[in-house]
Amino acid sequence: MTEILERFLVQRGHLVQTFQRADDALAHVRKQAVDLVLTDILLSGMSGLKLVQALRDRPDPPQVIIMTALEEINDAVEAMRLGAFHYLLKPFNMGEVRIVIDKALERRRLEREVSELRHEVEQRYEFANIIAKSQRMLAIFDLIRRVAPTNATVLITGSSGTGKELVARALHVHSLRRREPFVSVNCTALPETLLESELFGHVRGSFTGAIADKRGLFEEADGGTVFLDEIGEISPLLQQRLLRVLQEREFFRVGESTVRSVDVRILAATNRNLHEEVKSGRFREDLFYRLHVVNIHLPDLQERREDIPLLADHFLRRICRENSLGEKTIWPDALERLMSHDWPGNVRELENVLERAAVLTRGSAITADDLPLEVRERGPRVHIADALKERITLEELERRYIVALFESLGRSRTKAASVLGIDRKTLYRKLMKYRAEGHL
Ligand SMILES: Nc1ncnc2c1ncn2[C@@H]1O[C@H](COP(=O)(O)OP(=O)(O)OP(=O)(O)O)[C@@H](O)[C@H]1O
Ligand SMILES: [Mg+2]
Fold it and tell me: Half-sphere exposure of residue 246, counting CA atoms within 13 Å on the CB side?
């Protein structure tokens, strides 16, 4: 059978490799790009279903066609669920083979095209794992590109979940220190004394439990970058120690009096307003200015809603890939909810919501019903300030106001029409339209 098929396909101009064992075939596909795999379902070496899965899980996966007898038809169906393109029921003739193969290759061409286009879009809207297309974020990409290769200390600010850590990593990866260590320290993770010894190291016997000399993270990071996360939380004593590092690149190990020096670049992040902390005396002003050489401020997600579809798509694809959930899409009603939610937890919240939805949804599309209540509920968000920030159209402003008003008046059309100063028929027409669009 292998020989007959090979001869037939070569005649039709295809480049063909044949294998008697599934694992040999898989090894070949791992080495060389292959457009199409034609395989029996009963194989030696590994099961046909395993093979389909292994092939379809590959980056740039080949199309797979299964050859099967009627008794194994259930396996063929399962194979298609795992991503096989089609099956050929034995006995088959060469006419059928030709048709199925031509179709599979056409599909292969389309899959490639889609993935290339997607890649292109991602390239344009991705920078060191940060996904964004909003003007404000693109300006930040620009800033990162310019600041990264310098040794400038950077203070990264923004609310929780806006991507501060991602920015810190991007700064390191695009710096000349990229091959040296990137050491990230969460300043809230440890009490003061432990944090001090963690950062600067200690000598044996300097405190109970210090059974040997230990290098601190600043020494570990020598030549590289230290990222001080949640810097707003550190104690006055550590603020003083850090100031010395920033000014002189010098420090002492705990319990030691010889001064040590390091070559590190310092990045810091906080979700506090350090200006306020300085004013109220909780944060040293001199340290603040040393940290604040360059400031990168990440806007809240609700101030850059145009990033939401891109981020949602990115997270969904990643989650589905990591959990072998197959491809899923987001329905317009769900996307509309994602776009209008306020996201107090910012990008992290969006990521969590999609993770939950991807796992919970029964179908291959996420609908508004798969979203948590606080996202699904449409709050009346019609502040003019919001409208200004989002630059929404007059039509949308009108819609949000009418829907919110209508709801707040217990869905009375008469009352709503009289408050709006329009006649009931006009209002009715608008409400029907909103309902058809899923806003009501
Ligand atoms: N623009 C983005 N593109 C892709 N992923 C993002 C983006 N912004 C944030 N994320 C993801 O959201 C999550 C939170 O980001 P990150 O940890 O960098 O936020 P943070 O500002 O440090 O938050 P916190 O103040 O709570 O520590 C991470 O999983 C991160 O990968
Ligand atoms: Mg963080």
Answer: 23
Residues 6+ apart with CB under 8 A from 43: 21, 22, 51
Q: Rounded to the nearest 10 degrees, what angle do helices 413-420 and 394-408 cross at? A: 130
Q: How high is the mean pLDDT of the chain?
A: 91
What pTM was estimated for this model as a whole? 0.67
- Residue 52: both structure tokens together: 């389909």
218 vs 436: which has the higher pLDDT = 218
**How many Å separate Cα 236 from the centre of its chain?**
36
The residues near 4 (Cβ < 8 Å, ≥ 6 apart) are: none
Looking from the CA of residue 126, the nearest atom of ligand 1 is: 3
- 3-class secondary structure for 103-130? HHHHHHHHHHHHHHHHHHHHHHHEECCE
- Domains in the chain, CATH or no CATH each: 2-122 (3.40.50.2300), 132-299 (3.40.50.300), 302-376 (1.10.8.60), 384-436 (1.10.10.60)
Residue 336 Cβ < 6 Å to ligand 1: no
Closest ligand 1 atom to residue 314 Cα is 4
Tell me the pLDDT tens digit for each residue of 12-57.
Answer: 999 999 999 999 999 999 999 899 999 998 877 788 889 999 998 8
Contact 359, 323 (CB under 8 A): yes
